Structures
1.
Amino acid sequence: MRTTDKELQILQILWDKPGSSVRDVHEILYPNDETGYTTTLKLLQIMFDKKMVTRSKQGKTHFYLANVSRGDTQQQIVDKLLNTVFKGSASSLVMQLLGNSKSSKKELDEIRKLIDELDPEKDHGNHNLID
């Protein structure tokens, strides 16, 4: 399922603040009120129809929850980026990311650790003793 930029912004809000009302989402999405409340309502209705969010009603107020996980959505977006922009080359994607950003020492250490864990050539302490 294709996620628009605004839908992704709304999902970010709902992942961080599950059970938000339209007003809650609207105030975070448009803090300067440059866009009408009905625009946010319509976006959430479209997302509900696409089954991206669920909603419950308390009185006159609808409360929304993301119906797609952050991890699945991130994976979908990365997969699309990898396949369309980098022609399936994970190394090109990673090189571009690392070359264009200032990663902290902690982030680089985490990346090294992940690479070590994924490396089939590395000894990960899984020793099979054969008698």
2.
Amino acid sequence: MGSQTGKVAIVTGASRGIGRAIAERLGALGATVVVNYAQNAEKAQEVVQAIQTLGGQSTAIQADIADVQQVRSLFEAAQDQFGDLDILVNNAATALFKPLPEITEAEFDRVFQLNTRGTFFALQEAARRIRDGGRIVNISTAGTTLGGAAGASVYLASKAAVEQFSMALAKELGSRQVTVNTILPGMTRTDGLIMPPQAIEQAVQATPLGRLGEPDDIARAVAFLISDEGGWITGQNIRVSGGL
């Protein structure tokens, strides 16, 4: 995928799962990686240590992406410590699966504050700070392309908005050679995948490649999009789902 040595990357929600795999992949490629986390400092430090063990440079910065002031503080702290930004991966998110009539106002607000509002203001900070030729990758879900799903209304709506942000920002930053894309993972094996075994098996059977995704499947796609080889791709929503 090419070296990212000398590049500065922020990965939100990077203490576990897909975010961790992305952060470690970017670190292995030589990028200086800011590992953002909301609560689990111990897990975030594990990611930092994994990157450092491979010879990379990394630090963990706590910020709840649902809080706009904390988003701004994250970018300020990263820039103060490492200089201008080259790569942003917006991964931090929360899921909610519940029938629409039962969703409370507080649940609705929490999903949109993190997944949509938080991502929007992270994109805004990146647009203001990122170097020319930089890369922005957002993480959505293949569920937005599958015609809806019972119980997933708020979650899918919050992610669909992110896809629209990406396509608009790609046009706004194109003159600076900054690419903006969104990856739409299929069902991926993480500790946040809490579903009945039967439902998981049905998803596997519906996937042409015949398995669940792994976090590193998503990380490899991110690595391609931030590389020179991915430099002609922008404004795209790309399913990384084994064909689901």
